[in-house]
């Protein structure tokens, strides 16, 4: 899969190689699960496991994928706040270098507060509009059509309650993350 670690050397140790490959595969699968491309997860993993910033060419070579794919996915990761451009001292070339943002709690908070919360709010709005539309149209419906519309309104209301609960859960998680001292790594192994 990947030929080099972040230090520019071939990974020889089989345990380090296995963990490295497993992390990139796992992050690729995780990205895919959340609706992002597998490549995006692998790129993030490549940067995360590198001790130094990498250029697009470095990432293209390490993952054996096209530079266009690397460029497009890095822009998305940058937009999501998961990677950032980095200045590399002593490099005389004009290439851009990137590094992973490793404040994982901030990344999760940004994703939940951005994309997920917007999607949930939009779903609630669509359900409300659809329910209101049916309720307004019911007086002009036949008896059997009103029965169908009542089922729709009832089921939409149930689903809307579920989405409002999801909205509450996301808000609660975000509030709790803000209250936690995420810099306290006393429980982490050294």
Automatic annotation (TrEMBL):
One GO biological process term: regulation of DNA-templated transcription
UniProt keywords, alphabetically: DNA-binding, Transcription, Transcription regulation
Molecular function GO terms recorded: DNA binding
Domain HTH iclR-type: 50-85
CDD domains named among the record's database cross-references: HTH_ARSR
Organism superkingdom: Bacteria
InterPro entries: ArsR-like_HTH, HTH-GbsR_regulator, MJ1563, Tscrpt_reg_IclR_N, WH-like_DNA-bd_sf, WH_DNA-bd_sf
Pfam family, one: HTH_IclR
Signal peptide: none
Family (UniProt): Belongs to the GbsR family.
This protein's name: HTH-type transcriptional regulator
Species of the source: Phototrophicus methaneseepsis
Lineage of the species this protein comes from: Bacteria, Bacillati, Chloroflexota, Candidatus Thermofontia, Phototrophicales
């Amino acid at each position: 899969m990947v030929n080099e670690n972040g230090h520019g050397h071939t990974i020889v140790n089989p345990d380090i190689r296995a963990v490295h490959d497993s992390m990139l595969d796992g992050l690729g699968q995780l990205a895919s699960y959340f609706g992002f491309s597998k490549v995006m997860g692998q790129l993030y993993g490549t940067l995360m496991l590198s001790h130094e910033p990498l250029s697009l060419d470095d990432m293209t070579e390490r993952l054996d994928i096209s530079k266009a794919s690397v460029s497009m996915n890095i822009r998305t990761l940058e937009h999501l706040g998961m990677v950032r451009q980095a200045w590399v001292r002593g490099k005389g070339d004009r290439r851009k270098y990137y590094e992973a943002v490793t404040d994982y709690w901030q990344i999760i908070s940004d994703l939940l507060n951005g994309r997920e919360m917007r999607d949930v709010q939009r779903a609630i709005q669509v359900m409300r509009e659809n329910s209101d539309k049916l309720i307004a149209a019911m007086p002009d419906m036949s008896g059997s059509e009103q029965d169908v519309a009542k089922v729709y309104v009832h089921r939409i209301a149930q689903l809307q309650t579920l989405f409002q609960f999801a909205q509450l859960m996301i808000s609660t998680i975000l509030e709790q993350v803000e209250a936690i001292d995420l810099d306290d790594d006393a429980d982490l192994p050294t």
